[in-house]
Amino acid sequence: MGDLLFGAFALLLVIEGLLPFFSPATWRQVFQRALQMSDGQIRFIGLSSMLAGAVLLLIYFR
């Protein structure tokens, strides 16, 4: 199980690094927009992301 989590974390880092590597200007714009969002909007995005991840995990481990 630890190997699986380590691999998932490594893949997350690779995917997260794609946008700033290939398009740093777009990455900067995304963060500028995020700074303009309210706390509630950011929390909603975080909740949506967690729920989508949980659903994908349930589908994967079924």
Entry keywords:
90% helix; flat; 62 residues; mainly alpha
Describe the structure.
- The chain has one domain (2-60).
- It has helices at residues 2-22, 24-36, 39-60.
- Helix 1 (2-22) crosses helix 2.
- The chain is built from three helices and no strands.
- It has 62 residues and is an all-alpha fold.
- 90% of the residues lie in helices and 0% in strands.
Secondary structure elements and pairings:
Elements: H1 2-22, H2 24-36, H3 39-60
Helix pairs in contact: 1-2
Shape: flat
Quickly give the structural class: mainly alpha
N-to-C SSE string, H for helix and E for strand: HHH
Number of strands: 0
- Portion of residues in beta strands equals under 5%
Quote the distance from N terminus to C terminus.
16 Å
- Kindly report the average pLDDT value: 93
Oligomer: single chain
In short:
The chain has one domain (2-60). It is mostly helical and 62 residues long.
